[in-house]
Amino acid sequence: MILYDIVDGIGRTVEGATQSVTGAFEPSIRLGVTGLSRAGKTVFITSLIANLMDRNRMGQLRAVADGGIQTAYLHPQPDDTIPRFDFETHLAALTGAEPHWPVSTRSISELRLSMRVQPTGLRGMVSGPRTVHLDIVDYPGEWLLDLGLMEKSYAEWSEEALRRADTRDVGASFIALAKATDSGEKLDEPRAKRIAEAYTAYLQAIRDAGFSDYTPGRFLLPGELAGSPVLTFAPLPMHEKTRRGSLYREFERRFEAYKTKVVKPFFRDHFSRIDRQIVLVDALGAIHSGPQAVDDLRTAMADILGAFRPGANAWLSQMLFGKRVEKILFAATKADHLHQSQHGRLTAIMEALLRDARDRADFAGAKTQAMSIAALRATTEDHLQGLDVVRGRLEDTGKQAAFYPGDLPSDPAKIIGAARDGADRWLDAEYSVMNFAPAKLNLAPGEGPPHIRLGRAAEFLIGDRLR
Ligand SMILES: Nc1nc2c(ncn2[C@@H]2O[C@H](COP(=O)(O)OP(=O)(O)OP(=O)(O)O)[C@@H](O)[C@H]2O)c(=O)[nH]1
Ligand SMILES: [Mg+2]
Description:
467 residues, alpha/beta, eight-stranded mixed sheet, three-stranded antiparallel sheet, 37% helix, 16% strand, globular, binds magnesium ion
């Protein structure tokens, strides 16, 4: 194995290699795919896998262009307790006779694609084909937002959460309830449940209003934890003399349990093992929603990216033991809503959105890049009455339509600046988004679903490990 590592030129840990059925150690790459809800994670993974199995549209991935990848096939995943990414169902939705978008997925899942790779060039002369496993892990970006809780006490978190809720209209009813609650009284489960439900309703409302500080993240994505004590608490005002068994003390204990039993296992078991990461961002959707949504996206991105800056969080850096994500790609998704003449502008906006997070600290040596992609291209391009438009089948009516989404500014500061200044609408432009359904496909043998720059995204993320 050591010899293999030297030939390979890649420093790999034991975790990075898996033992195959034949007993040989084979390299594996763990690719994390995240983004806030509806960012495009499921479509991305489905199309990436399909296009790695049928590679005719993946010429931008060098190992495809030079014939290095001989075969790619699905393989049982290494982790027995993580739900399998339901590739076949999602692909059938996207490419069936009546194509439609896949259902929303609200938890973590995993899929292993194994590739038989023959290195080319000099290395190809000394080594034969080998198997590289790509383990793709899909997880909600919301879970990363919980990192901020790890270094807070219940009293600190409560104080901040209540202060923020107090400044928002949608917070009024929860604040009234929190103020009317005597937290020194003995815990009463039905009452605890009511308070937690009111807090969850508040989180739901701020998410709908476009805010992003909806921690604890699992309150909105509870999965199998729904109704458990670890999700049955809420911020309460500090109570001077709280007895054991009081509401305050019990909520404090549950808050700590949330940290150790929910947040910590995610970072320890999943996040810490990721080698490469793609963060998908629906920047176009936010631009369409207006300046406040864009500014909110900017702050959410900064929070999410905090998880990728070792050192920014003492608890996390301790847990990672110096291991870090090697490459991070920030991808603006659904670029097929725009004519390619505007893709550069979308990428520039994406870069500007990230600059904040990047300026505060770099990613400690991790390579980063921004890109505009469409994992599944649902439109074609056209030029009508002097305008660059896209055409596609509308999701609600099924009718074909040509669509001009508005002209993105060449200077991203026009978007980011207005958002940061708290403008409530775009001044000199209108941006709209249409919901296109996936196009009906007639794929030739060897062809994966149509996309925009998926090959380039794959080259950045894993290209070096396939040579
Ligand atoms: N036109 C177009 N629309 C896309 C593309 N990718 C995603 N979408 C749209 O975005 C929606 C959400 O995509 P998903 O892949 O389900 O997003 P997700 O991040 O997995 O969402 P959750 O599972 O709900 O968190 C889809 O239903 C489509 O409407 C794309 O490449 N092109
Ligand atoms: Mg999903």
